[in-house]
Amino acid sequence: MVLNIYPPLVSEDLVFRSKTATLQSSVSVIVSSLSGLDRLTEENVTSAMTVAEEAGLSRILVTDGAGRILYDTRETGSAVGQYAFYTEVVQALLGRDAAACSYKNGAFRSRAASPVLYQNQIIGAVYAYEYDTEKAAMLAGFQNNLFNLSMVIGAVVLVFSVVLSTTLTRQIGELLEAIRKVREGAYSHRAVVRGRDEIAQLGEEFNSLTDRLQKTEEARRRFVSDASHELKTPLAAIRLLSDSILQTENIDPETTREFVADIGKEAERLSRITEDLLRLTRLDSDVLEAASAVEVLPVVQQVVRMMELIAEERNITITYQAEEGCFVRSTRDELYQIIYNLADNAVKYDRDGGHVEIRLKRDRSWAVLTVADDGVGIPQEDLSLIFQRFYRVDMARSRAAGGTGLGLAIVRDTVEKRGGSVRADNRPEGGAVFTVRWPLIREGGAE
User: Fold this and answer.
1) What gap in Å lies between CA 53 and CA 295, rounded to an integer?
2) What is the number of H-type helices and E-type strands within the chain?
3) What CA–CA distance (Å, rounded) separates 143 from 253?
4) Would you give the distance in Å from CA 313 to the centre of its chain?
5) pLDDT the model gives residue 284
6) Which end of the chain is more exposed for a tag (fewer CB within 10 A), N or C?
């Protein structure tokens, strides 16, 4: 619309200005040729109008002071002797120059008039008229070219818009279809969005999110399955023992006490599993106690005192070397749970007569805790898996030792929630070592 309206209007206005200026210049020349006459008559005007033949105008009129036409260049239907009532002539006889230009019916119509003066008295007027179809044809051709050009541009834009919208709607449709399938539970489905635009980037982000959802769902299902299995085992043992007591007639008191003791052990195991599951649930939900600056050394000393009694039963020595002033952002219960789990695992899986060593030191801006034993170590293929929930390297031995398979998972999640990290390695001289790193803070709480 702009292409078909603005340029033609500007071009038309330029032609109007050019026509008006040219016509007024021609009228001024004719007025100059008549300015030496004291009054205008048909004879003296005709003799003085030889310049009119060179002007190339469509019509020239010369009137006297009353508006009667004295000269007319039109050969057919000459108006000599008649009065001119053209607006421009009236304006000229009033002493003003007048000009006008219009464009209609495929032609430019230009008019101009000026007064003829003698000793500052108006003795007549000169009126010029031009009818131009040549420049009108040029303007019409220009308008047609603009119209054809705008049609071509419009067609190109339309085709491009259709192609672009089809491409976008297809990509968005594929993405929406993928979202619907994932919403219905098909976490393995992936959106296939080609290209490098924002829609393709959105598809990549969606696929990345779906990957995480699939992993989370698989972990949830595995967790539910493992938790059910772990809870089922002590419950089955309790039921078996209780049924044995009920169905055995004349059971002696000693056997009853043994069965009841076994039921108590299984109930205690069931309680530990439940507590660990609740602790992991709180960690997953980011339900943590308010942290403060806690020194690690007193907690290490408390754990060592507790573990010495258990280690003595298998002739295992447990020692520690710790620096003072290692404050971390945590709670005392969390630190105790972390260090106790690592020390308990080290004692459980160390060899009889072995040695467990706990070290605490500063490493630039970190507090580093290591718990090492000299047992058989951890198989290389299991190092990256031992922090998974319910994962056990030696299933039979872990159950016999009373483990739930959740201790290391609790350690990892608790440490990471406080901005730290934990890893497991094998020692070159034999045995396993667990390394925990926390950000150091000042006693007042600032990092």
Assistant:
1) 115
2) 11, 12
3) 116
4) 62
5) 66
6) N
Is-contact 70 40, C-beta < 8 A? yes
Return d(Cα 111, Cα 420) in angstroms, integer.
Answer: 93
Q: Say how many C-beta atoms besides its own lie within 10 A of residue 346's C-beta.
A: 27
- Half-sphere exposure (Cβ direction) of 118: Cα atoms closer than 13 Å: 13
CA distance 123 to 114: 11
Determine what percent of the chain is predicted with pLDDT higher than 70. 91
Is a pLDDT exceeding 60 seen at residue 368? Answer: yes
Residue 119: per-residue pLDDT:
86
Structure tokens at 420: 């730290």
pLDDT tens for 394-404 read 544 444 444 55
Residue 421, CA atoms < 13 Å, CB-side half-sphere? 3
Query: In angstroms, rounded to a whole number, what is the distance separating the alpha carbons of residues 447 and 440?
Result: 6
- Closest Cα to residue 370, out of 446, 269, 270, 438? 438
HSE at residue 189, side-chain half, CA atoms within 13 A, is: 14
Q: How many CB atoms lie under 10 A from the CB of residue 105? A: 8
Per-residue confidence (pLDDT) for residue 399, from 0 to 100: 47
> Which structural domains are found in the chain, ordered by start?
2-132 (3.30.450.20), 148-287 (1.10.287.130), 292-441 (3.30.565.10)
- The Cα 238–Cα 311 span in angstroms is 29
Q: What angle do CA 92, 96, 98 make, to 5 degrees?
A: 70
**Cα–Cα distance measured from residue 265 to residue 245, given in angstroms and rounded to the nearest whole number:** 16
Residues 215, 188 contacting (CB under 8 angstroms) = no
- Check residue 7 and give its pLDDT: 85
Flag the least confident range among 85-99, 262-276, 317-331, 352-366: 262-276
Most distant CA atoms of the chain, gap in Å:
163
Q: What are phi and psi of 49, to 5 degrees?
A: -95, 30
In the three-class reduction of DSSP (H, G, I as helix; E, B as strand; rest coil), residue 99 is classed as: strand
Which pLDDT belongs to residue 58? 85
